[in-house]
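Quick one: structure tokens for this chain, please?
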Amino acid sequence: MNETLVENFLTVLNLTKNGVKIYYKIMKRILLVLYVFCICGLCADENVMTHYAADNLRVRRDGTLSASIITTLPAYTALKILETGRSETIDGITAPWIRIVSQTGYTGWCSSGYVKQIESDVAEDIAYSIRYREAGTYPGTRDFSDKGNVSSIDTIKSASGYYIQQGGRYFQASGHAPEILLLFVDNGNVYIRELDIVNGQIKTRNRIRLRFDGKTYTHNQTKLETKNDKVQIIYLEHKPEEFWLGTWEYEDPYTFAGSLDLPIPDKVRRLSTDYLRTFAGRYVFDSYKLIRSQNETLDINLIESTVIQIAYNREKKCLTIPFNDLCGFYRGFDHVKNWQINFVETTAEEPFWWTYGEGVGYSEARFYFYKGGIAFTYGSFYWDITSNDESERIYIKYVIFFRKE
């Protein structure tokens, strides 16, 4: 064989080997990128909630009415369907059982007859539901009627159990306190334990012993009292430093929420770390709907760029957000520099931030969790009292929906 041919053959063979090596390196990198992309896509899809509970929804351990109940999801809780089971008729509604995971971390089975798909334009849905809602309608009133004392250990024994604040909101911004209290008697002594649920484990945050002072059982400013023959607790162990809007009403009574010999009620669990921290995260603009306006406009660019970052405060056991971060996009000022809004309200029925003011007109703003995101509704109406010209009146009503990333 010609020496030149041999050299040419070896050169081609060497180039081919190097080419194969380069080819394999390139393909390896491409496959790695595709693998990472697919995994990220799957993870992102895993977090996307596609449906919601159309009413308070019982979640069971299996797809049958005889299965034990894991929890009851509040209406409008977002969820994702994992699999579909057999059909069954419940309360006249024939629908398949579905296995779901909720935005709050519960996995189990429920009837799909009480589940609906989240709309592509949630703001439109919100606008329809609040179009004729009256402003400034707080559900509660403060009760200043006479209270009684608790002097009998037997009375306390019969009233032992879980206590939380459950009264209706009666003033703008003010919400419920985050504490879960356990009232009990041990060896003739009266105790209150402040509880939490962290990673599925019940934790004691505080424990106090109440002593009889000749009228009722007390510890510092904390005391037991009765209202309509029911024991309630005035728990003042962690009074807040700030007394302006944005803090809960610590002086409101804690009322009976569940017996010790039964599973912890859902309304109690909704005040736990495990539950509350599922609402922490980054919420970004999704959609808006202008219901009506006159002589007033929206800054759409500002609204679309708004990010609501909600954090969980472990020390105070509540959700929290700086005031300006939450309200800056519609209030138009930022003079409240270091004020935090702390809250525990997580159902659609009760806003976690609610302000209302009136004078020559009114304005009202509400923020509440809704279908896996945050709904914001705003309405205002003002006029010049010296003018009868209706065309000069200023009013606006709109809604915004922020989805969770």
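The mean pLDDT is 86.
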